[in-house]
């Protein structure tokens, strides 16, 4: 009986490599690079290589093939990496949930498009805090790619032509985007101007959506040779401001200029048209059990941004 117990304990220990080895392997497998794993974990490349060799010796399995200065997973390495990645995600999620419950409150670091934040989230965030007064949402204005593994970000609101489909991500549709061309109210006394007013006008755009005016002209059957592109802006709010002072016509998400259209400071050129892009809430699958993330996700998905 004692012998069987000792053998069982020995097997459990052998089948459970140290957490440091697993963390290093998971990072190297995810990046398919010892160099990038070293950068992510603040270790030397030689330390990464040494620990991988130690894990391979422990398992008596070759996990990586060395090809010149690069590495790639073997078939067994890929199988092991998928399981280890899932297991570590569950551990991280469970740890986060326990820590949040122990504090009695939770915080969420949210990366968000600047204009989406100023036009929709911030004006409505009081409603979220009324429902969840102990939660804290830390907002970072961001444009461009989000790297959840390298940045201190829990979730993000993005705009994309396709729904993010990476296996490590959760993705929820917030709203479809509709585009509207707008001009300064001084350009017209009517509430909606004819689409052909855009032909020959100076056209302003957002740099992240360079095809917007082309799509708009195609929708209305206008001659593309009449497109006269002007400055582009990284932030939609800056484009709206430029239109407001009369620099040119702008094409923007209709959701972002409703107040200006209702107040009469801007006038629509044509009717809003469907955009190929949509707004999504995304976050790592490993954080799906975070109470604050669950609360925020449920809240924002229950609101109508269309």
From TrEMBL:
Gene3D superfamilies: Periplasmic binding protein-like II, Winged helix-like DNA-binding domain superfamily/Winged helix DNA-binding domain. It comes from Oligella ureolytica. Keywords: DNA-binding, Transcription, Transcription regulation. It comes from the Bacteria. Residues 17-74 form the HTH lysR-type domain. This is LysR family transcriptional regulator. Belongs to the LysR transcriptional regulatory family. The keyword Lyase does not apply.
């Amino acid at each position: 009986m004692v012998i069987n117990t000792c053998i069982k304990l020995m097997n459990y220990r052998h089948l459970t490599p140290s957490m440091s080895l697993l963390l290093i392997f998971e990072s190297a497998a995810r990046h398919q690079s010892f160099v990038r794993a070293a950068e992510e974990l603040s270790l030397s490349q030689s330390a990464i290589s040494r620990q991988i060799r130690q894990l391979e010796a422990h398992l008596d399995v070759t996990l990586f093939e060395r090809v010149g200065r690069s590495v790639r997973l073997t078939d067994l390495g890929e199988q092991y990496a998928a399981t280890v990645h899932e297991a570590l995600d569950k551990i991280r999620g469970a740890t986060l949930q326990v820590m949040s419950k122990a504090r009695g409150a939770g915080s969420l670091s949210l990366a968000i498009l600047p204009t989406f934040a100023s036009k929709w989230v911030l004006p409505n965030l009081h409603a979220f805090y009324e429902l969840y007064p102990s939660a804290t949402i830390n907002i970072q204005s961001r444009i461009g790619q989000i790297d959840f593994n390298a940045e201190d970000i829990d979730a993000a609101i993005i705009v994309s032509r396709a729904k993010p489909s990476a296996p490590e991500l959760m993705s929820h549709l917030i709203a479809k985007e509709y585009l509207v061309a707008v001009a300064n109210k001084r350009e017209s006394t009517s509430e909606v101007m004819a689409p052909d007013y855009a032909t020959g006008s100076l056209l302003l755009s957002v740099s992240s959506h360079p095809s917007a005016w082309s799509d708009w002209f195609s929708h209305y059957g206008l001659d593309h040779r009449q497109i006269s592109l002007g400055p582009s802006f990284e932030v939609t709010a800056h484009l709206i401001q430029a239109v407001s002072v009369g620099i040119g016509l702008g094409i923007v998400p209709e959701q972002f200029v409703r107040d200006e259209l209702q107040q009469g400071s801007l006038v629509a050129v044509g009717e809003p048209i469907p955009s190929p892009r949509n707004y999504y809430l995304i976050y790592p699958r490993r954080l799906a059990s975070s109470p604050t993330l669950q609360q925020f996700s449920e809240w924002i998905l229950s609101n109508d941004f269309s």
